[in-house]
Specification:
By secondary structure, the chain is an alpha+beta fold. The chain has helices spanning 2-10, 14-17, 65-75, 79-96, 131-137, 156-173, and strands spanning 21-29, 38-43, 46-52, 55-56, 101-105, 118-124, 142-143. Helix content is 37%, strand content 21%. The radius of gyration is 16 Å and the shape is globular. Mean pLDDT is 90; it is low at 1-17.
Length: 180
C-alpha cells in the first residue's frame, strides 16, 4: 500500500484527468537514448521523457531493424540512408530545443523501452514553432504515430492535413529523406 501511494505521488495529477497540461520553460536534457521524436526534458527540477504526437523520425541505429526497414520503405531509401536521416533528426531536435521551450501533454502513455515513463506531447520551440511540423517540413520525420487535437487549437484532422502539405513541399524540394 505504501509503495502504491508513493507511485501516485510521483505521477502528475493531470495524468488521471486526461486534461492538457502546459510545461513552460522546459530544458532539453542530453541523453544517448534521445532521438528526433523522443527525448528527455527537465521541468522544474523533474525529468521526463516526451514523444511527439503525429510523427516518427528514423532510428539512429539498427537496434530495431524491422522498424528501420519500415522507415526506409516509407522514404524509398536504403537502411544506411535511413539511419543517417535519423541522426540528422536527432541533431535537428537538439538544436531546436537548445533554448527554453514549451511542452503540452495529457500524460498519455507513449510506451517505450526505458524504465522511466514516456508521454506523448506537442512541443513548441522558443520561437513558437511546432517541432513535429519542423521535422516534417525538413524531411526528417514521417507522418506516423499517435494523433491528437491540440489544446485550444487545431483538431487532429486539421493537423494531419497541415502535416501532409508540409510533407509534400519537403518531397518536392527533395529535403531530408526525400533526397534521392
Amino acid at each position: 500500500m505504501k509503495i502504491l501511494i508513493m507511485v501516485f505521488l510521483l505521477i502528475p495529477a493531470a495524468a488521471f484527468a486526461g486534461k492538457w497540461e502546459t510545461l513552460q520553460k522546459c530544458k532539453f536534457l542530453a541523453n544517448p537514448y534521445n532521438d528526433g521524436d523522443s527525448f528527455h526534458v527537465s521541468h522544474k527540477g523533474k525529468e521526463y521523457i516526451f514523444r511527439l504526437y503525429f510523427v516518427d523520425t528514423p532510428e539512429t541505429s539498427l537496434k530495431y531493424k524491422n522498424r528501420v526497414k519500415e522507415q526506409a520503405k516509407y522514404w524509398k531509401i536504403s537502411l544506411k540512408a535511413t539511419i543517417k536521416i535519423g541522426k540528422k533528426a536527432k541533431k535537428f531536435t537538439a538544436k531546436k530545443l537548445n533554448s527554453k521551450f514549451t511542452v503540452y501533454t495529457k500524460w498519455d502513455d507513449a510506451k517505450g523501452s526505458s524504465k522511466m515513463p514516456r508521454y506523448f506531447a506537442f512541443v513548441k520551440t522558443s520561437s513558437g514553432d511546432d517541432l513535429a511540423s519542423l521535422l516534417v517540413s525538413n524531411g526528417l520525420a514521417r507522418i506516423y504515430g499517435m494523433p491528437a487535437g491540440q489544446p485550444k487549437g487545431d483538431s487532429a484532422n486539421t493537423i494531419s492535413k497541415k502535416l501532409k502539405k508540409l510533407e509534400k513541399k519537403a518531397k518536392n524540394k527533395k529535403l531530408g529523406g526525400w533526397k534521392k
